[in-house]
Amino acid sequence: MKLRRQKHAKKNMGFYKHNFHFSEPFQILLDGTFCQAALRNKIQIREQLPGYLGGSTQLCTTRCVIKELESLGKALYGAKLIAQRSEVRNCSHHKDPVSGSACLLSMIEDGNPHHFFIATQDQELANRVKKKAGVPLLFIIQNTMVLDKPSPKSLAFVQKLQTDQLVPEYQKQSIVQLKEKEGLAKQEGAKRRKRKRAGGPNPLSCLKKKKKTQEGQEPSAEKKKRRKRKRNRVKAEGVQSVQKN
What family is this (predicted)? Predict the structure, then answer.
């Protein structure tokens, strides 16, 4: 079971490395629910996570998460200590702290440019994270940490990327300008104009065959008549010569 879980983690990490350019050290944003679950299940996050993800990691959190844990009192004191031992990433809520889930969501806006992982046991937060492309999700189940498979949003993003549907407009314009500069656009247009269309039959083959005219037949008929008259004249002369004798 452990080998199977490790194999799935390696496959999922390969997906994020190849398609979203994740690299070491991997930055793991912890919320209070994940810290509490790790404490309850006696999971050493700092020691176990690098081996599971196959690379060095940095445990991170935000001031809003720590403030939220402090406000919940002694029940989450241990979770607060875990969060405080993590590196604090700056958020945009210095003066007006928000809930931990809202703060973590703000950290992965605009395409998750800092390549954060989100580690949480909050199902509502997890569902909202899955609606964003390129955000790996970690949670704890059955006393073990699990890297969730890529979300449908991430898969759809990669599919569009592979079919060149996400090429920025300025890049498309620069490609057109380069083609015009090199004269490739004119050549392509000329090729399109020279392309032969499917033609019909040869027009000369459609002409009807010429029939023999009566004018062409009349000379031969006239010759036959002349020959007949000559033969009759010869016969008549022969009869007359016989009678005289």
Answer: Belongs to the UTP23/FCF1 family. UTP23 subfamily.
Give the mean model confidence (pLDDT) for residues 38-49: 94
Q: What is the pLDDT of residues 151-194, one digit of tens each?
A: 999 999 999 888 865 556 666 677 777 777 776 655 555 555 55
Range of the domain at 91: 1-150
Are 104 and 162 within one domain?
no
In 3-state terms, what secondary structure has residue 188?
A: helix
CA-based nearest residue to 87, from 113, 106, 112, 61: 61
177 φ/ψ angles, rounded to the nearest 5 degrees:
-65, -40
108, 162: one domain: no
- Report the C-alpha gap between 163 and 226 in whole angstroms: 89
Name the token pair of 154: 């991430």
Domain boundary among 104, 130, 150: 150
**pLDDT exceeds cutoff 70 at 102:** yes
Q: Report the percent of the chain where pLDDT is more than 70.
A: 71
Name the 3-class secondary structure at 111. Answer: coil
Looking at the fold, whether 92 and 165 belong to one and the same domain comes out as: no
Report d(CA 134, CA 117) in Å as an integer. Answer: 9
- Based on the domain organization, do 69 and 161 belong to the same domain? no
Q: If you write DSSP's letter for every residue of 135-179 in order, what string do you get?
A: --EEEEETTEEEEPPPPHHHHHHHHHHHTTTT--HHHHHHHHHHH
Question: Two tokens at 104?
Answer: 């973590």
